[in-house]
From TrEMBL:
Swiss-Prot/TrEMBL keywords: Acyltransferase, Repeat, Transferase
InterPro entries (alphabetical): Hexapep (IPR001451), Hexapep_transf_CS (IPR018357), LbH_SAT (IPR045304), Trimer_LpxA-like_sf (IPR011004)
PROSITE patterns according to UniProt: HEXAPEP_TRANSFERASES
Similarity comment: Belongs to the transferase hexapeptide repeat family.
UniProt keyword annotation of Flavoprotein present: no
PANTHER family (alphabetical): SERINE ACETYLTRANSFERASE
Identification of the protein by name: Serine acetyltransferase
C-alpha cells in the first residue's frame, strides 16, 4: 500500500468515526453543542458559521484539546480510536464533577479537576488543580458561570467562586471569591472588580 493510499484510508476512517459520533453523541446533546460553540467562539474561528457537523469535524481534527473534552463528555477516555484524535494528555477530570456546557481548555497538561460543580463557559489552562481539602470529598469547590482560570492555579476546599470571575496564573484560591472579580496571588486576593466603573 502506498503512503498516499494509506493517508487516504486513514482520512476516510476518521470521517466515518466522526459521522457516527456526531449522530450518536453530538446531534441531540446541547451540552456538547455548547462546548463546540464556546471553543469556536473563543478561538475566533470562521467555522462558527458552518453547520454543527462541520464544526464538530473541524474541532476533532484540528484541536486535540477539544477532542479531549469530547471524549471526557461521552465517558470514553479509553476508547480504542481516541489516539488518532488526541495527543497523550496528562489530565484528570473526576466523573463526579458536574460541568455545564461551554467548557474549554487550551492545554490540559498536568490538570486535576475535582469540584462539586462548575458552571457554563468554564475556561482553563495547563497545571490547574481543583480539589478537596484534607482528602475530604465533602469539601469541594463550587465554581460559577463564565469563570476563566490561568495556568498553574490552585483552587482548594469548600469554597464558592462566583460568576464572571478571572483567576490569574499561579493563584492559590482557598477562600470564596465574589462574582465579577479578578483575583491573583498566593493567597489569592481581589485585584479588580469587574462590576465597578
Amino acid at each position: 500500500m502506498s503512503l498516499r493510499s494509506l493517508f487516504y484510508t486513514k482520512y476516510i476512517f476518521k470521517r466515518c468515526l466522526l459521522y457516527i459520533w456526531y449522530k450518536r453523541y453530538v446531534k441531540d446533546n446541547p451540552v456538547i453543542q455548547a462546548d463546540i460553540h464556546q471553543c469556536l467562539k473563543v478561538r475566533g474561528s470562521k467555522q462558527i458559521k458552518q453547520p454543527l457537523n462541520k464544526q464538530f469535524n473541524h474541532l476533532m481534527i484540528h484541536y486535540p484539546d477539544y477532542a479531549y473534552v469530547f471524549f471526557w463528555r461521552i465517558n470514553k477516555l479509553n476508547m480504542l480510536w481516541r489516539s488518532i484524535f488526541v495527543d497523550t494528555r496528562s489530565c484528570k477530570i473526576f466523573r463526579s464533577t458536574k460541568i455545564a456546557g461551554g467548557m474549554m481548555c487550551y492545554h490540559p497538561f498536568a490538570t486535576v479537576i475535582n469540584a462539586k460543580s462548575i458552571g457554563k463557559n468554564f475556561q482553563f489552562r495547563n497545571g490547574l488543580t481543583i480539589g478537596n481539602k484534607g482528602n475530604d470529598n465533602s469539601k469541594l469547590p463550587v465554581i460559577g458561570d463564565n469563570v476563566t482560570v490561568g495556568a498553574n492555579a490552585v483552587i482548594i476546599g469548600d469554597i464558592t467562586i462566583g460568576n464572571q470571575v478571572v483567576i490569574g496564573a499561579g493563584s492559590v484560591v482557598v477562600k470564596d471569591v465574589p462574582p465579577y472579580s479578578i483575583v491573583a496571588g498566593n493567597p489569592a486576593k481581589i485585584i479588580k472588580r469587574l462590576d465597578e466603573n
